[in-house]
What we know:
Chain A is of the alpha/beta class. Chain A is about 25% helix and about 20% strand. Chain A has helices at about 10-15, 20-35, 60-65, 95-100, 160-170, 200-205; strands spanning about 40-45, 50-55, 70-80, 120-130, 135-140, 145-150, 170-175. Chain B is an alpha+beta fold. The model of chain B has no long low-confidence stretch (mean pLDDT about 85). The interface between A and B is large, with 62 and 61 residues.
Amino acid sequence: MSQLSSADTQTPEESAAATDEVREAVLATFTSRLGEGVVGSHIRPGDDLWIRVDRAQWHEVAVVGKAMGYRFFDFLSVIDWLPSPFGRDMDAQQDLEVSGVIAKEPAPIVQGYAGGDTRFQVFARLYSIADGMGITFKADVPDEDLSIDTWSTVFAGANWHEREALEMFGVSFNGHPNPINMYLPADFQGHPLRKDFPLLARRVRPWPGIVDVEPMPGVGNEEEGEGE
Amino acid sequence: MTAISDPHAISTLAAEANDNRVNLDFETEGMTLNMGPQHPATHGTLRIIAKLDGEQVISAEPMCGYMHRGYEKLTEVRTYPQVNALINRIDWLGSFANEVPFILAAEKLMGVEAPPRAQWIRTILFEMSRVANISLFLGDFGLQLGGMTAGFYAFRDREWVLNQIESATGGRFHPNFDRIGGVKDDLPKGWITESHIAMDRLLAFCDEMEDLLVGNEIFQARTRGIGVIPAEIALSYGLSGANLRASGVDWDLRRDNCPPGLVYDQADWKVWTHPDGDCFARTWVRLQETREAAKIVKQLLDTIPAGPVMAKVPRIIKVPEGEAYVATENPLGEMGYYIVSKGDLVPFRVKIRSASFNNISILPWVARGAYVPDLISILGSLYFILGDIDR
C-alpha cells in the first residue's frame, strides 16, 4: 500500500477518479472563512472530506462550521498515532504466524488523512442536513501541552464526548464546564485508550486467535485466499 | 424545518425557558434523589442523580460507566471478523444493525462490494432488527408508565421477529451474520413466506399498540407536552433517529445518506416526522417507523434477487491503509464507526459513535424543571440501551 497521504496529496487511483466539486467548494468556503487556520485537507471523491486545522483555531472551527450549516454534532474523539510499543505481542501469536508479521517491529508515527505532526490528534465530525454530507475536522495536540479549546459552548453535545476524551487520552479541554470522568472511577490512574496503556487481559491470558483459519495449501501468503 | 439559526438567540431562549420552568420565587429545601444503577425505568445500569426542589427537578445528571466494557480498546487487538462478533453486544436489542456500519466501513476501505442478494438480506435483517427493537420499546415504555398489558403484548409479538432472525442467522440476539463481502449464509427454505406472516403479525401489533397505548388517555396525559426538545437544541446535542425526527427535523440516513451496500431505494416507504418534540411525538414517530420497517421488509422479500451471497474476498482479511466513517440509521439513531486502518489484520483505531450516548446526553437539559414522574416519561421516550451508551 502507498503511504497515507499528507496534505493535499492523493493516491493514484483517487486522482484518476472524478474530482468532487461539491466538497471542493465546501473546502474553499471553509478555508476562506477560517483564514490561515486550515493546515491540511483530504478529499475522497464522492465520499468524505477531512480538514486539519490549527489548534488555536479549534473553537473558531465549530463556530464557522455551524454558520455554514453544519449544525449536527456527530462525535468528537482523539487518535493516538503512536504504534503500540508492545509490538504485536498483544495480538494472538497464531495470527502472527499466519500473516507472517514479525513481532515488535519498530514503526514510526504516521498520521492519517490530512496529515499531522503530533502523536495525538483531536478529531470531530459535523454534519449538514442541507448538504447531506459531513466533515471530519482534525487538530494536532502537542505532547508537551495536551489541551485544546472546548466545543461544548457551541455544540452542547460535545460536553460528554470531551469528558470521554479527557479520561481515555488525557487531553484536556479549555473552558469545559464539567471536566470529570465519564466512565471510569474518579481515582483511576492512566488513560486507557492510549497506545502505551497495556491491555492486561492479554498479558494474563493470551488470546487464542483465528483458530479455524489456516494458510491455503501451496500458497505462501495471505493475499491469495479464496472466498467462501 | 423552521428553526432559529442564530446560536446566541437560541441559547438565550433556552436559558429563559429553563428559568421559567424552575420555581425560583419559592425556595424550598433541596433534596437529592438517586435513581439507579438498578431502576425499572432504565434499560440497564444507568444511574441518575436528580436534585429536586419539591417535586421539580433542578438538575439531573446521568452517571455512566456501570457497563463500560472498553470496546474501543478491545477492537485494537482483534481482527475484523472478531470485532464483528464483539460489536453485536453494543445495542443488544437490535444486534444485527450494529454489525452493518462496521462491515460497510471495512468494505469501503477494501473496495469490496457485496453481491445484490447479500445486500437484500442485509437490509431485510437490518429492518427486522429495527422491528424487534422498537416493538419492545413500545411495550416497555407502556410498562414504565403503568400500562402492564402493552409490555406483555410486545414480548409476545417480538418473538415472531426473533424467530425469523434466529432461523436465518442461528442467533436470537447476537446473529454475527454479516461478513465483509456479503453475509454468512443464504436464507433457509420457506423463510420468505414465514417472514411475510411474521411481518403481517407485527403490523397488526402496531395497530394494537396504537389503540391500546398511544391512543390511551392516561398515556397521552403522561406524555403530551412533556420533555419538549426544540430542533436546534436536538441538533447541537447530536440527537438522531426518532428523537430528532420527533422534533420536526426531516432527516433519515436510510433515505438521505444511505451507504452503498443497503438497498433502501428499492422499497417504497416514508420518513415520518412530528412537529411537537415531546415524549408523545417520540413514541408516535417510533410507532410509525416500526410500520414502515415491516413494510420495507415485505417489499424486499418480494423483490429479492437470486445469486451468491458472498463476494470474492481473501480468506484472511487485511484492510488497506486509510480512514473511513460509515453511519447507518440504527433503531436507536445514527450509529457509525470511524475506522483507522494501518493495513493490518486488526484496526488501528475504531471510534464507535453510538446513538444512545448522544441521545441521553441531552437529559440534563430536558429534565430541568420537569416533575419527577415526568422524568420517567422523558427517560423512557428518549429510549436508550445501556450498552449503547457505555460501549
